Structure formats: C-alpha cells, structure tokens
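Hi there, hope your week has been kind to you so far. It would help a lot if you went through both lines with me. No rush at all, and the record is pasted right below:

***
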Amino acid sequence: MHDNQPRTSIPDTLPEVITRYLNAHRAHDTATAITAFTRKATVIDDGNTYDGTEAIGEWLDRSATEFTYTIHLTDAQQTDATHYIATHHLEGDFPGGTIDLRYQFTLHGGLIERLVIEP
C-alpha cells in the first residue's frame, strides 16, 4: 500500500540539514547556512534563480539586510523520501507587511539540492 498523503511533522522532526539551514538563516549566519547546500544547489525565491553556493551566499547576505522581519515556522511536512515543505509566517517592513511562505526543500546526499520559496 502506498501512502501518497503528505505527512505533517513536528518542526523538530525535520532533517538536521533543513533545521541547520533554517536556524542559520534566521540568525543571518550565511557561513553556516551555506553548509546545508550541495555545491551545485539551486534556490528559487521571489522569481529569481540562484545556482551554486556562491550565488546562494550572495542571496542570503542580501535577504538578511534588505528588510527587517520576524519569521516563525508554522508547519512542516515530508511529502516523500527527499522532499519537505516548511511553512513560515513572516512579519516585517517589506511590502505588504505579512506573508506566509512555503519553503520547498529537495534533499540529495544529505544536503539541500533545491529550495523553492513561494507563497
């Protein structure tokens, strides 16, 4: 029997690599956040694509300083063996002031290979 329904998990049960990234991103610790990605990882955020750890590092540095905001993990799901969705609620001085974003992670070899961030 195949269960294709997403499994809701307590945020503490996300894989360590995702938790490491999320905690480092929240703390604006780009050096630690980068260690969660494969060398050829891709991040898609706000309609832009960042390929490779150098471009991802620049994106992380810019996103840490562009706006001031709080971020709270509101839900976490594992959709299959290598895919996870972490939903965050953000409030801050960006246009609109509040938004819920889905961080969609694809893992490969124990690291983040792809991250898509969208409402």
User: Anything to note?
Assistant: The two ends are 32 Å apart (CA to CA). Helices lie at 16-26, 30-34, 52-66.
